[in-house]
Amino acid sequence: MGKTELLYSDPIAAAVVAAEEIAKKTGIASHDVALVMGSGWVSAVDALGAPVFECNAEEIEGFLPPAVEGHSGKIRSYEIDANGKKMRALVFLGRTHLYEGKGIEPVVHGVRTAVKAGCKVIILTNACGGINTAYKVGQPVLIRDHISLTAVSPLSGATFVDLTDLYSKRIREIVKKEDSSLQEGVYVHWRGPTYETPAEILMMRTMGADLVGMSTVPEAIAAHALGAEVLGISLVTNAAAGVTGEKLNHEEVIAAGKAAADRMGSLLKGVIPKLL
Ligand code: HPA
């Protein structure tokens, strides 16, 4: 079990300590970009080659052990060639979710740590249900905007942060140049751990949502509030509840992620060197 007292009493200080620990363990003073790999996305990082460093996340200040199958709870560092220049990517395999009931601080600790470790761009990946009936299972969708249905913010106090360009338009354009078939959608953050009811999916569609999942939104807000640019990519792993009449299960989510891993990996590999 990692140390979490500081995480709850002073989460930003905990992120600074965690970033210092990562710099010390990796021998890399500053990283450039961070990736958070969601359910089913873990094998997509194989496209980045061999990591130069790996540790269990809970060895680092403030990180909890993983709670979900398919989330392996590792932190890795990769060296990426960006047209002859060296880029450093910090990769989180797995994340903490709001539905785990540990509060909001562990949910956003990874991205805060990444920003404190120097990352200017945070790539958030996830598995989601497709609300938009035009979406197919296995299709990646860029998050253009979100609707938070959890009413939980990672920020407290009079921090009135603007979210109009939360999912950076600049970066979405770079990604669409890499893969012009990519569509954009509005992601709903659902607390879980239950999947939605068909009636809730109908409500979300009526509100203008395309995708639904149990992550990403608090991390995007926390990263943006600290000044990082955010890219969110959802992989549609199933049609949302009520769309096909099929029941939803976590195994199908993981399997759809695995099936799309190669495509997602080459997308990430192509995009990362163009980000900074
Ligand atoms: N709903 C919520 N979260 C999800 C889903 C879903 O249908 N699929 C994968 N994560």
Structure notes:
There is one protein chain. The chain is an alpha/beta fold and 276 residues long. It has one domain (5-274): 3-Layer(aba) Sandwich (Rossmann fold), CATH 3.40.50. The protein is 30% helix and 24% strand. It contains 7 helices and 9 strands, in the order ααββββαββαβαβαβα. The chain has helices spanning 5-9, 11-26, 105-116, 169-178, 198-207, 217-225, 250-271, and strands spanning 33-37, 53-56, 74-82, 85-93, 121-130, 140-148, 183-189, 211-213, 229-239. Helix 3 packs across helix 6. It is globular. The chain starts with a helix and ends in a 5-residue tail after the last helix. The site of hypoxanthine has 14 residues, from strand 5, strand 8 and strand 9.
What percentage of residues falls in helices of 4 or more residues?
25-40%
- Count, helices: 7
What is the residue-averaged pLDDT? Answer: 94
The end-to-end span amounts to 35 Å
Structural class, judged by helices and strands? alpha/beta
CATH level 1 class label: Alpha Beta
The sequence of SSEs as H and E is HHEEEEHEEHEHEHEH
Attached small molecules: hypoxanthine
The oligomerization state is single chain
**Integer-rounded radius of gyration:** 17 Å
**Shape from CA axes?**
globular
CATH domain fold name = Rossmann fold
The biggest sheet, with number of strands, parallel, antiparallel or mixed sense and barrel status, is: 5 strands, mixed, barrel
Number of domains: 1
Unreliable sequence segments: none
Organism: freshwater metagenome
Family: Belongs to the PNP/MTAP phosphorylase family.
EC number: 2.4.2.1
Keywords: Glycosyltransferase, Transferase
